[in-house]
Amino acid sequence: MVRELAGGYELDDDSRRIDVDVVHRYISEESYWGKGRSHATVVASIEGSQRVVGVYHAGALIGFARAVTDRAAFAILLDVFVLSEHRGRGLGVELVREIVDNGPYRDLRWWLGTDDAQGLYAKFGFLELQLPAVAMQRAAQLGLPIR
Ligand SMILES: CC(C)(COP(=O)(O)OP(=O)(O)OC[C@H]1O[C@@H](n2cnc3c(N)ncnc32)[C@H](O)[C@@H]1OP(=O)(O)O)[C@@H](O)C(=O)NCCC(=O)NCCS
User: Fold this and answer.
1) Are 28 and 36 in contact (CB under 8 A)?
2) Which of 28, 32, 82 most suits a substitution to test ligand 1, by most atoms within 8 Å of the C-beta?
3) 65 ligand 1 Cβ < 6 A
4) Which atom of ligand 1 is nearest to the CA of 114?
């Protein structure tokens, strides 16, 4: 799937086209959630995702998102970013629309975590959980071959 957007941008869900070096640099150096993530982990995370969407401008990757799913009950949206010089032009909205609403997993229960982009995801029906239950997490274990 390639979808052309205004301004010479395009979306593509071909994981072989992803520029892993750009994704790794952004996540490991600039993101607030993945600082220090290794190149090997970024490669493995892309290989292990069921859908990966890149945003491209003049052939270069400038945005990214990936989804992990069991293809039956749930999908998790991860590692969403648009490089800073391309923000504020609607690309983040189109990226989320593509991976959540246009893909084969649109009818599943979607999960994500965010510090401050609730307004972006609310456009696609994500609701903040008012949890009577407690969300829990087990941190990644040190000493794994990749982190
Ligand atoms: C979040 C991000 C992907 C949005 O990309 P973008 O191309 O600038 O977004 P858009 O131009 O499509 O606009 C996003 C829309 O969501 C809204 N929004 C809500 N919270 C936002 C936030 N924290 N950051 C950006 N937009 C936000 C914007 O107001 C805008 O709505 P509008 O069109 O009604 O004005 C981009 O700002 C980014 O990469 N941020 C740093 C990484 C990050 O926070 N990723 C999300 C982790 S959960």
Assistant:
1) yes
2) 82
3) no
4) 48
Q: CA gyration radius for the chain?
A: 15
Report the relative pairing of strands 109-111 and 74-82 from DSSP bridges.
parallel
Assigned CATH topology for domain 2-122: Aminopeptidase (3.40.630)
Domain-wise residue ranges, the chain: 2-122
Q: What is the pLDDT along the chain (147 residues), one digit of tens a residue?
A: 999 999 999 999 999 999 999 999 999 999 999 999 999 999 999 999 999 999 999 999 999 999 999 999 999 999 999 999 999 999 999 999 999 999 999 999 999 999 999 999 999 999 999 877 888 888 877 665 554
From the list 80, 113, 111, 108, the residue with the least C-alpha distance to 96 is 80
Question: Does this model's pTM top 0.85?
Answer: yes
Distance CA 104, CA 134 (A): 30
Is residue 111 exposed (0-12), middle (13-18) or buried (19+ Cβ within 10 Å)?
middle
Ligand 1 contact, 117 CB (< 6 A) = yes
